[in-house]
Amino acid sequence: MEQYLLDVARDALLTVIKMSAPVLLIGLTVGLIVSIFQATTQIQEQSLHFVPKILAMLIALLLLGSWMLTTMKEFTLRMYESMLRFIGL
After folding, report:
1. pTM metric for this prediction
2. Span 36-89, pLDDT tens digits
């Protein structure tokens, strides 16, 4: 019972990390590039920092959305299968 719960929790956490990592890394990279640009040009406009990062993350979501949906579908099917195995059907 405890091992089953640990396996479910581990699988859920790994799925969340696998789904969120690409979008977060793209946001981090664009934010770093914009910060370096702001530091070198000494432009301190706040919207310059957030708008490119939001746009890049939105584009990443649009491009990776089908992969994320497929990953979530596979996770859901694994959970249903493991629940059936757990209750003995």
Report:
1. 0.79
2. 998 898 888 877 888 999 999 999 999 999 999 999 999 999 999 888 887 876
Nearest-angstrom CA–CA distance, 13 and 54: 25
DSSP for 17-43 reads HHHHHHHHHHHHHHHHHHHHHHHHHT-
Q: Which domain holds residue 51?
A: 2-87
User: What residue has token string 């301190």?
Assistant: 44
In SS3 terms, 53-85 reads as HHHHHHHHHHHHHHHHHHHHHHHHHHHHHHHHH
Distance CA 54, CA 57 (A): 5
Return phi, psi of residue 43, to 5°. -90, 125
Contact 52/30 with Cβ under 8 angstroms?
yes
